[in-house]
Amino acid sequence: MATPETVFAIEPPFAFLTFNRPEARNAMTWAMYDALVDACDQVDADPRVRVWILRGAGGKAFASGTDITQFQSFRTPSDAMGYEQRISAVLERLERVTKPTIARIEGYAAGAGCAIALTCDLRVATEDSAIGIPVARTPATARRPPPTAACSSSRVRPGRRRCCSPGVSCRPRKLWPSVW
């Protein structure tokens, strides 16, 4: 599913998904998450694709997280938990892609954008990129205390780690390995 906010293209042996909201630092909308899941299916189904590259338009952000306007309809704690479940399902689908995935990061990869980048097999970032998950009192975090661990890395699947800890400096180098 292509949207004005995402551009999906296959140029064998590569597939590209571009988050295309540079005016909003590529903040993710529900339609963009749906397009990401659809792109996962297309990449898996196309034998011409050998590598999938995810990137942000505009050079200032890979993805700056979920657009906060998406939260305006939230009224109950279950709305926030539904959001968490939705994002988890998107990330789990990205984890199951059968082709190597690369996050090409220019600028910010924050919040859910950071999680998307960390779910990819490899991250390539410019030296001035900033990557992390800020602590915020969003509907999804308002009912639970902030994490106290310095770094809560967890195994995602063989060869991958996700570091979800706020307060940990994730300043990228020119090329990040696929395992932290």
Q: Can you walk through the features of this model?
A:
The protein is of the alpha/beta class. It has a single domain (6-176), classed as Alpha-Beta Complex (2-enoyl-CoA Hydratase, Chain A, domain 1), CATH 3.90.226. It is built from 3 helices and 11 strands, in the order ββαββαββαβββββ. Strands 1-2-3-5-7-11 form a 6-stranded mixed beta sheet, with helices on one face. A 3-stranded parallel beta sheet has the order 4-6-8. It has a two-stranded antiparallel sheet with strand order 9-10. Helix 1 (30-45) packs parallel to helix 2. The chain is globular and about 45 Å long. Mean pLDDT is 81; it is low at 143-180.
Number of strands: 11
CATH class: Alpha Beta
**SSE class:** alpha/beta
The proportion of residues forming helix, as a percent range, comes to: 10-25%
| Count of individual domains | 1
User: In order across it, which strands form the biggest sheet?
Assistant: 1-2-3-5-7-11
Which terms would index this structure?
180 residues, 2-enoyl-CoA Hydratase, Chain A, domain 1, 11 strands, three-stranded parallel beta sheet, alpha/beta, 3 helices
Give the secondary structure arrangement, pairings included:
Layout: E1 6-11, E2 14-19, H1 30-45, E3 51-56, E4 61-63, H2 77-95, E5 101-105, E6 108-110, H3 112-119, E7 122-125, E8 130-132, E9 153-157, E10 160-163, E11 175-176
Parallel strand pairs: 2-3, 3-5, 4-6, 5-7, 6-8
Antiparallel strand pairs: 1-2, 7-11, 9-10
Summarize the structure.
The chain has helices at 30-45, 77-95, 112-119, and strands at residues 6-11, 14-19, 51-56, 61-63, 101-105, 108-110, 122-125, 130-132, 153-157, 160-163, 175-176. The chain is of the alpha/beta class and 180 residues long.
